[in-house]
What we know:
The protein is α+β, with helices and mostly antiparallel strands. The protein is built from four helices and four strands, in the order H-H-E-E-E-H-E-H. The radius of gyration is 16 Å and the shape is globular. Zinc ion is lined by residues 66, 71, 74, 76, 116, 118.
Amino acid sequence: MADVHDKKTRSYNMSRIKGKDTRPELKLRKALFAAGFRYRVNVKNLPGKPDIVMKKYKTALFVHGCFWHAHQNCRYFKLPSSNQEFWKAKIGGNVERDKRNVKSLEDQGWNVIEVWECELKKDKFESTISQLKLKLKENMAR
Ligand SMILES: [Zn+2]
């Protein structure tokens, strides 16, 4: 059991270093795949490089880290007490960029779903996936 945990921790750390395939996103991808959804990942030729793209559902999906993308009213979004101006500018820039990307994608006819990392934590995971499945079906029908 200890070994399994170590392996998980190790691959988590590795993924953070490489800057892609971060664990919550991977968990989400696995759950979608298990539910029969097929997708492409890190699609570079679409605005903002969506994390998951499902053409059949006309859906581009982003997994946002709560801190870096300023998840409002979320306990994981709290500006550090020092250098507040720096962080405000930095994170504010991310938020502006997110908005622009969503707008461009929608202009190109995509439905955009933004999933927050905190919604993929253990206690919320199942309900997030159920909601996501519903949304995807709606998107396909549109
Ligand atoms: Zn959050």
